Amino acid sequence: MPRRRRAFTLIELLVVIGIIALLIAMLMPALNRARAQALLIKCQANMRNIGQSMLMYANDNRGQLFPIDAGGPFGYPTFDQQWYVYVLHSTPSPKPLDQTDWKDWCPQILYCPADDPEPLNAHSYILNDHLNEHKIKYHSKRLGGLTPDRIVVMGEKVTDQGDFYLQAFPDHTTDYDKTLEKYRHGRRLGSCYLHLDLHVDTQTPEQTFNGLDPWDTAPPEPDPAP
Predict the structure, then answer these.
(1) Using CB atoms within 10 A as the burial measure, which of 9, 50, 102, 103 is most buried?
(2) pTM for this one?
(3) What count of other Cβ atoms lies within 10 Å of the Cβ of residue 211?
(4) Sheet strand arrangement including 191-195
């Protein structure tokens, strides 16, 4: 007489499904951490490459790392006059200027992969225009007690803000709180920053705080007389 094959009971199937669900739940945090780490590494690589382009621009422009914001505190330069055209040598859009938008001009390197897929004005990073306001160059020394590794050149902007520069307004306020994204890579790491010595790191606002606008700094002091 042939032997009957024993089938799984409903309870056994539910136990197996429960074990698989438990294993997935245990693995998900590790997978999420790995994904977040990959996005962070890509963002930092973007900033390092932008920093190298700024260095080349500085070598041709007496130490100035990026152009002054020609739009001032209340507007933007046109697509073809933005800082990335001069520093990153981005490819011009083949479309007529009146038929283009920011996506046609902003190079992909200005997009943080941890940001929303469509940040306003097609970029994730913002420049510290306080450097130009105070005439701070790449080679500037005696920076009001700060060292180049503590002075921010570029950080991450809030997704729904379109500005390219963080700067002072005529009433001496700034758009730091409104424009700067402080926790793009989580509460523990904060956001990525490119510094005047061109190193890149992650910092929380608590680590960078040295005033109401921690991106601001004093003009460089003259070197002491020999």
Answers:
(1) 50
(2) 0.84
(3) 10
(4) 165-166, 125-128, 152-156, 191-195, 200-203
DSSP-derived letter for residue 3 is P
Q: Which residues are bridge partners to 24 per DSSP?
A: none
Task: Look up residue 190 and give its DSSP letter.
Answer: -
Q: Where are the alpha helices (DSSP H) in the chain?
A: 10-60, 83-87, 102-105, 130-133, 176-179, 205-208
Say which residue the tokens 């409903």 belong to.
10
Token pair of 185 as six digits: 């890579």
Q: How do residues 16-49 score in pLDDT, each as one tens digit?
A: 787 787 777 776 776 677 788 999 999 999 999 9
Rounded Cα distance, 196 and 198, in Å: 5
Amino acid letter at 33?
R
Instruction: Give one DSSP letter per residue of 74-131, joined into a string.
Output: G----GGGSHHHHHT-PPPPSS-GGG--HHHHS-GGG--TTS-SS-GGG--EEEETHH
